Amino acid sequence: MATETGYDRDAVRAVLDRARSESRAALTAPEGKALAEAYGIPIPGEALATSADEAVSLAVELGLPVVAKIVSPDILHKTDAGGVEVGLSSAEEVKAAYQRIVDNARAYNPGADIQGVQVQQMVGGGQEVLIGATTDPTFGKVVVFGLGGILVEVLKDVAFRLAPVSAEEARAQIGDIKAAEVLKGVRGGEAVDTDRLADVITRLSDLVTDFPEISEADLNPVFASASGSVAADLRFVLDFEPPEPPARFTREEILASMNRIFKPRSIAIIGASNEQGKIGNSVIRNVVDGGYAGQVYPINPKADEVYGRAAYPTMADAPDGIDVAVFAIPAKFVAAALEEAGRKGVAGAILIPSGFAETGEQELQDEVLAVARRHGVRLLGPNIYGYYYTPEHLSATFCTPYDVAGGTALTSQSGGIGMAILGYSRSTSTGVSAIVGVGNKADIDEDDLLTFFGQDDNTNAIAMHLEDLKDGRAFVQAAREVVPKKPVVVLKAGRTSAGARAAGSHTGALAGDDKVYDDILRQAGVVRAPGLNELLEYGRALPVLPTPGGENVVIITGAGGSGVLLSDAVVDNGLSLMEIPPDLDESFRAFIPPFGAAGNPVDITGGEPPSTYEKTIRLGLEDPRVHALILGYWHTIVTPPMVFAELVADVVGQARAAGIDKPVVASLSGDTEVEAASAHLFAHGVVAYPYTTEKPVQVLGAKYRWARAAGLL
Amino acid sequence: MATETGYDRDAVRAVLDRARSESRAALTAPEGKALAEAYGIPIPGEALATSADEAVSLAVELGLPVVAKIVSPDILHKTDAGGVEVGLSSAEEVKAAYQRIVDNARAYNPGADIQGVQVQQMVGGGQEVLIGATTDPTFGKVVVFGLGGILVEVLKDVAFRLAPVSAEEARAQIGDIKAAEVLKGVRGGEAVDTDRLADVITRLSDLVTDFPEISEADLNPVFASASGSVAADLRFVLDFEPPEPPARFTREEILASMNRIFKPRSIAIIGASNEQGKIGNSVIRNVVDGGYAGQVYPINPKADEVYGRAAYPTMADAPDGIDVAVFAIPAKFVAAALEEAGRKGVAGAILIPSGFAETGEQELQDEVLAVARRHGVRLLGPNIYGYYYTPEHLSATFCTPYDVAGGTALTSQSGGIGMAILGYSRSTSTGVSAIVGVGNKADIDEDDLLTFFGQDDNTNAIAMHLEDLKDGRAFVQAAREVVPKKPVVVLKAGRTSAGARAAGSHTGALAGDDKVYDDILRQAGVVRAPGLNELLEYGRALPVLPTPGGENVVIITGAGGSGVLLSDAVVDNGLSLMEIPPDLDESFRAFIPPFGAAGNPVDITGGEPPSTYEKTIRLGLEDPRVHALILGYWHTIVTPPMVFAELVADVVGQARAAGIDKPVVASLSGDTEVEAASAHLFAHGVVAYPYTTEKPVQVLGAKYRWARAAGLL
Prior knowledge:
Two copies of one chain form a homodimer. The first copy, chain A, contains 23 helices and 30 strands. By secondary structure, chain A is an alpha/beta fold. In chain A, the strands form six sheets. A seven-stranded mixed β-sheet of chain A has the order 19-18-21-20-22-23-24, with helices on both faces. In chain A, strands 5, 6, 7, 8, 9 and 10 form a six-stranded antiparallel β-sheet that branches. In chain A, α13 packs parallel to α14. Chain A is flat, with a radius of gyration of 31 Å. The first copy, chain A, starts with 8 loop residues before the first helix and ends with a helix. Chains A, B: It comes from Streptomonospora halophila. Chains A, B: Residues 33-69 form the ATP-grasp domain. Chains A, B: It holds the Pfam family CoA_binding_2.
């Protein structure tokens, strides 16, 4: 998808080679024009004049009015140098401007190599937009689009995409800015031809993809109108020594290692100890008590037996067939022990100890990684709590065992967040397939884990906390493969500038601009969680909710007040309240009191018996035009909380047995009994919360965001 | 504050009187100009030409270029009529334009009364802005400010204020738009003189305040620059029959009634019943079992005694000195019973029954209100669960008693939301002074309650759920009086268009544009809760947190990962991470491991003992440059959750005993023990939550928003 036929790569190559041979980091305007022409990016007619008379004759040929600009490899900011004049509409003006520009340039930089003055057809009209490309430290080549002027400068109303972009992606990018409506024509203006505008984005994205040494490109302004888009000014910055792309493993290589790591035949625990309070004691207890069925080999030179298992002085002494070695020894001993584990053929080394890059010991970490690479061992960590995989009853951690099996795999870069995952999961009985700490990510990172969980039948949703990505492209590629099959939720910490600064001091990771992350994660189909609580909540709830079959959401509520707040939440979360067709409206009305409100929300009013809830909910489930239900419950004596919960669980269960599998969420308002009622509903496949009208709708919104990204709607 | 000397009110009066006498709903351009001149709103030089020759001489006099516009009371949309020409820069152009404009106008509306063509000095340059005024159904006269062009039209980047605005308020309004930076000068442009721009807003706001019959005014565009602001076009719409302003009670009248309603000597319960399951049975049980110490008189013609209290057949038969009558009888009997209660001199009638305006029975509700007004009785409801006031152990409701006394007064328009308030409060042991249902608000509404709770020593925070305001101005006035003393939190439901539609079908209330509510509530110093859960949480937490003494917030965290997320939340909630001075940084560093990060967040790292938390937190409390602390806790064996909670409670308690009263909030990451630890902290004045980094910071942010609005920072 990177390139199209019709591009003149040789022409670009020639320009770039010359710039390289002259050690230049920028292109002149004629060079930029050559690149644009080679990739079919429309530009105004223009030519280079080397005398005032030549400028005049070119201006007449191109058509007045014209713009004149200094051409010098030594003058990058032409306006600052007094090197630009616009709106020259007569031969006299052109002639005078030529001389002024050259004089100004000489005054600005007496040593500048002045090659002449570019005379350019003056474009205008339509809408000024900006199209650019840059090289992001995390994602590599990205393209940016925005409207020109203050909208970009003050409101930062821009949209990013990973390059290269397809025509379809470029159109979505254009529609992504807040002021996109402007392009449809406002104040009587004509609509911009967005296909042709998207074509310019695509061509620029191909150019920077084909020639990675173009580190930045600005087409600014581009005049976009109904008759096409013309880039009036171009700027290219070059970097002939781009950073090495990160090393990558193939999908087969990743899965070969990950399958052994998550489903090990046997595990060695290096530093396993009988001494309570030691990490090596906690780890072996948790592995054994957690119910892991494979062999467990304590490695400890000072003990014959640890926690009832025969111990071995070194890895070399242990039996063969060990897939995983868990390290519970100080950082300084890790490299040597890893060397042994590597010789023994383990697939994964779980590096619990801290004292590596996070405390400034980058070299020690690099040394350990080098050992691992030499032996084909994948590293998890260092500086982690360990990992859990419930299908194998595996709790390889110094925390406590967890084995409420379920579909959610959770990962965290930070140990503190990992502990929150554990506590929250236990408190809410969240069904979990895995909890994994990635810590310093010396080796295994989120794209490895995505690749494994994406094909893991025990996992049907993935929720990740991360502060940075080592390789944004690999992550996007992995996410794109997984998203059509199961939701991927990401909490990206360090979103704001204050947050990013904290990330810097914590991990040394350079947090990229958050807008780049935001746009590109969305482009990859990832559901971004706004905070920790949402990460946990989405992780818990998304596997419980069936996938909706369409956009028609109906609210059925016993409390009108909840109906209003639920409607607010529907809009906030990008959902659509169904326009109820007259026949369905009539059917609802048949079940509710005359002063109740049909329409949407369906307000059954507060004093109704269980049967009213039951009939209306059943109707919503059975009508094929309705795709999702939001329930608002109001605690009354007539329909107590658990009666409501049981009837909803029954009705939904019956519908599901009959093959009707729609997402149902509920907000319960009432006295404290609504807490048990919500738990009952959750356990029966209805995502329910007490005391909040926002959370159930937010979770449904997350499910919809995923379903749309997965192409299921 | 409404008017300034120097306004020529007589001139405005004359113009409006003429318009009224001619039954016109709009002013002509010269009339609009007369209004602007009378109120000192700068406009371009202009004059009326009645012939092409006169137009030319005027143009020369005013200075070319000029704009020419048709003047006709019958042509409101001049552009549509071909009645505007701009940029006329020669006598010939002016002459030709005059004729075209008049011809176009005749073609557009052959019957139009054409008075001539207005010749206007052409203004431009600077920044195009819009200043307007309108009559909001909830708030009355409001003024709007925004940048011109697509920023207003597409991005709706405008700010509203209640008229009249002071110069200071107008400056704040200008700064309130997202693109405000544009006015400081971008792309090398000069900064706009915002004082002079604010002056135009103030003058327009005075004009519409002094002359309520001006229902709408547009100054659009206004050209704002460094040298002043000129309104290039004006439009005024008139309404000589504005709606009646709502009836209001004086503060003394409100308090006289409210004090008797919340602190009654005795209560009558009309419809009190021995029959379980009846509302009249629930109410008397709750009043009696709740511990109310005054006399309780059941009114029931069919019983001698109800729930152990002597019953009376009618109110007339009951003893004197009754302050409150609670109605637990069907709607149709309320008016007659209220007549009796009124004669008995009750101060308040608590109308629990439904079946009034919310079911379409507006007339019945109006009738009941008329009875109440005749007897000087204030009505609460109808269509409510009742009300609680814990200082009097009063639970006048059909729900269940509640008596965890504390400082928060909560009110709700919807019964369902009231039940959520009750359940949430009970579940979290929220200390409550009052819970009040306002239902249909036939009489008592939020401004009455604000007035009472504002001066109630038992209340130190007020949290209100509302779907509409009957009298937005009265609410703002009450809020402005209360906010300097205690926080007022509002959940305004029906925020979005879908939500507003639901509000319409629920209460028949016309929900105003949410942006108007949002800006004006903020102007009144109200803290708006984004959702139900936040309303409850702010209500619970704000009275617990001391008021900060300044903007310097410091994060102290054991989990670096939490530090990053807490920093994100700090920025999201408009707080400022303190730039730690070098000496304080050094002091922090003395307590933390060398690889920990000082700066802000202060990252003490995960493996630290209780003493490290203790020393750093004590330092943050004792250093007078620090104004608020956010703690991030990470569950470890070395510092278990309850150990952390107890030490923080101790350190904070000692500081408070020593007169250091700073807000401290905490996020606890860990296994389920962090839940009990959070509850312990909350009970000891530290606002703490498990499994979330957002909520503690959000609550601190709400406290800061209030403190700023109250003028305490």
